[in-house]
Specification:
The chain has 200 residues and is α+β, with helices and mostly antiparallel strands. It has a single domain (33-199), classed as Glutaredoxin, CATH 3.40.30.10. It contains 5 helices and 10 strands. Helix 2 packs across helix 5. The longest helix has 20 residues, at 6-25.
Amino acid sequence: MFRITLPKVRILLLALTTLLALSSCGTHEFRGQLLDAPTAATDFTIIDQNGQPFQLSAQRGKLVALFFGFTHCPDVCPTTLSDMKAIRQRLGSDAEKLQVVFISIDPERDTPELVNRYAKAFDPSFIGLSAPQATLEPLYQAYGVTAIKRELPNSALGYTMDHSTYIYIIDTAGKYRMIFPFDMPIDDITSDLSYLIKNG
């Protein structure tokens, strides 16, 4: 007769528990675009509208959603910020672990005060930042942001900005983890962010 002794039972239980833990980690199917090899996010410091420094690395412990846009944007930027507000509402109590940061790609018109006011009009928790072009340019390059000025000779605006529309996600450990393309379903983004908040 095959007999299982107490030490063997403990070993089997430990192995089973480990197997279940490992399998549960792989149950989430990400909808966004994961980076092949997450690396430490490029840190930056931008002085806000109150003269205080906002530093990305100081946000450790939270997910950070970076979005680059401009206050005169007619469609993509307000849509994205409205979506992020809806996502925070869906996250419930976990919303406090998500920091949305809106960074201007049009510092010629977007003052720190204007950008911050614009971002907070969508959600009071949002942070809006702007700085001189020389300060922002290395940041655009680090995250692969495209921002091209296009003249509008027949418009009172004078010009607009053609820009990339991704949301860049920095995880709780400060690693550049994934991106979401524009117009991705809100429920899909919420699912991914909720997983990252709970599992890192």
